[in-house]
Automatic annotation (TrEMBL):
InterPro entries: NTF2-like_dom_sf, SnoaL-like
Pfam families from the UniProt entry: SnoaL_2
Name of the protein this chain belongs to: Nuclear transport factor 2 family protein
Any coiled-coil regions, as ranges: none
Start and end residues of each SnoaL-like domain: 13-117
Amino acid sequence: MATFTPADHAALIRRYFQACNDADYEALVDCFTPDAVHYFPPGLPDIPWRSADVIARKWIWCVNELGSQWTIEKILVSHDSPEAVIEWTHWKNKSGTALRGDEWYRFDPATGKIAEIRAYYAAPADRAVQINELFAFDYAARGYHLRSE
């Protein structure tokens, strides 16, 4: 069995986000095990997303329909288990809104690919605000992106 390092896992997450931003189906599918699952908080239709194919198609829809782009704010990778956690921002450029949150990743030890993602939002999606994020947290002072790149 292959051995994957924390650096390998971090690189895969970065490759996954680039594939999302590029709406690249093949690159997205290549990041996941075929039976991967992406979990979300309540409120979205058709969740969880089950399979690399479904995950890829859903993110491509977001890019095409919402103008979605994503930035990674922080990555922490476990040194002793095939897991990682990140903070991200989902920029919905067509509506001028954004959502911040975290994701926990579980990697398949045999392939190093993403087997599971569990998404957590920083705040409930509130249509009355432009950027959904933690209240009174100084994103600018902490070096977070303040707009889509």
